[in-house]
Write a structure and sequence with these properties.
Blueprint (H helix, E strand, L loop, with lengths): L2 E5 L4 H12 L3 E6 L13 E4 L5 H8 L4 E4 L7 H14 L7 E5 L24 H17 L5 E5 L4 E3 L8 E3 L12 E3 H13 L6 E6 L1
């Protein structure tokens, strides 16, 4: 059993991570900016006001956590960079700091030419700020996270949606995992499975991984 803090627990990804972790017997603290807006929670989840970009919030919650999951979204580019920077800065000074699992973006995955998908000429402009923010966060973990154990998780870049929990998936690292038709597909439910599997059995320590069917 692990003590898991989930920032962004009220969101599409965070809510499923909370549900999966609780179903497996972990103790979960759901950290959200507006607790009054969270109308659901599995039994036993501790709901708190929390902000991954706040040093005080991270400091308050890190002391008893084994793992901090960052599943925030819906902000401008700086949100993801600031969350990564805050966590790294604070956790360096925490005795026996918790591991960080950052739910990032699929647009940071690489094309067959080994260039980020977000640099493709046809990348949708409306998603660019978010993609650049997630790229900033990944760069922070890779360059500045000495003393902090982290994992960055990228879902498929396009076909990623709520759906069925199957409990099966395949993993990769820098390139999307594709099927025989060249598609990279995953549900939020099975991304949560992959993340809790990684919490229970770490395989991608201080690196990024991706998952799909």
């Amino acid at each position: 059993m692990s003590e898991i803090v989930v920032y962004g627990a009220g969101g599409t990804a965070g809510s499923r991570i909370v549900a999966e972790a609780v179903a497996r017997g972990h103790r979960v603290t759901a950290a959200v900016r507006r607790p009054e807006a969270v109308t659901w929670l599995p039994a036993g989840v501790h709901l708190v006001t929390g902000d991954a970009t706040s040093a005080q919030s991270v400091r308050d919650l890190a002391g008893t956590a084994d793992v901090i999951v960052v599943a925030v979204g819906g902000g401008e580019r700086a949100l993801w960079r600031d969350a990564a920077q805050t966590l790294i800065t604070v956790l360096r000074d925490v005795p026996d700091p918790p591991r960080v699992i950052h739910v990032g973006g699929g647009a940071t995955l690489l094309t067959p030419k080994d260039t980020p998908l977000l640099d493709e000429p046809d990348f949708p402009e409306e998603y660019r700020d978010a993609a650049l923010g997630q790229a900033d966060a990944l760069a922070w973990y890779r360059s500045s996270a000495d003393g902090v154990t982290w994992t960055y998780v990228s879902p498929p870049p396009l076909e990623f949606h709520p759906g069925e929990r199957t409990g099966r998936y395949r993993t990769g690292t820098e390139h999307p995992v594709v099927d025989e038709q060249g598609r990279s597909v995953l549900t939020y439910e099975d991304l949560a499975v992959a993340i809790v599997d990684e919490i229970e059995n770490p395989r991608f320590v201080n690196m990024r991984f991706t998952a799909a069917y």
